[in-house]
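Task 17 of the worksheet. Students: predict the tertiary structure of the chain below and write it out as structure tokens. Keep your answer in the requested format; marks are given for formatting as well as content.
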Amino acid sequence: MTDSGEATAATASAEPKDGSVPASVTAIVVTYNALPWIEPCLQSVRGCELIVVDNGSSDGTPALVRERFPEARLIEQENKGLGAGWNAGIEVAGGRWLFFLNADAWVVADGIAKLVQVLEREPRAAVVGPRLRFPDGRLQRSVRGFPTLWRLATEYFFLRKLAPRTKLLNAFYGGGFRHERELEAEFLMGAAFLVRRDAIEQVGGLDERFFLFSEEVDWCYRFRQAGWKVLFSPAAEVVHVGGAAHAGRLFREQVQGHLLFLDKHRGARSAAAARRLLAAALTLRGLVFRGERGRSYRETARWLRSGSLEELLAWRR
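Model answer:
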């Protein structure tokens, strides 16, 4: 998090060039206590239909949107999660292309137009995502692989650190991919991507059982199962702060997302095996790490052992 001066500078750098946002694009931004990042975020997508879905912010975000972005359609609702917010935006969106952008992210220059060009060139692509960067310019790895038992083991037992550039030990985080060329991906981190409306109409919107984390994993999986492609393109760039709204406090939701995905797409036996694997890995992590991080691991390990799989899958904070 930065002070207001840094946010103002970000706003200036995020301002798009004239005509850079195609009129056929609807930008959907879901907010939850999004200050100070919401202003550079919305400034970067000005010029297209703009929908802001606020999930019960208490920091003045809706008031700022009304004052500074009067052209935006503001929907205020209770916080049912990111996917539910995206669905609310989809219901009223009018564009041929829907651009989903996190509230702590902003598009660089004419990035949206470049993503539209990719989908126009690739008629079987449902999704295209840009290259992501942290505010300091570092690459933010966004090409990911679908969860499997092996991939969860390489992540939660830190096996990927043995060979982070290999697909064998780091397919979960796109090991070996340098984010310098366009390619087909299993799924993309959901901080920013453009989606074809026709594909949404075929597979449906977001599964709202995923409160936060894994909603884009499930969506991309469903697109691919229906025969669509998911593409990564470095032609466009988006700056993404990362975790500004939750600040790492929703680790249990992240773990639950893995279980929900496996139960839905691989079956209850796979989800049950993942539950045992994650409980063991987080118990070990809880012994190694101290402070808030270690406490989060220990509490999540206890939660994984606390009830039936069905109860874990239905859990809400």
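Marker's comment: The radius of gyration is 19 Å. The chain has 13 helices and twelve strands.
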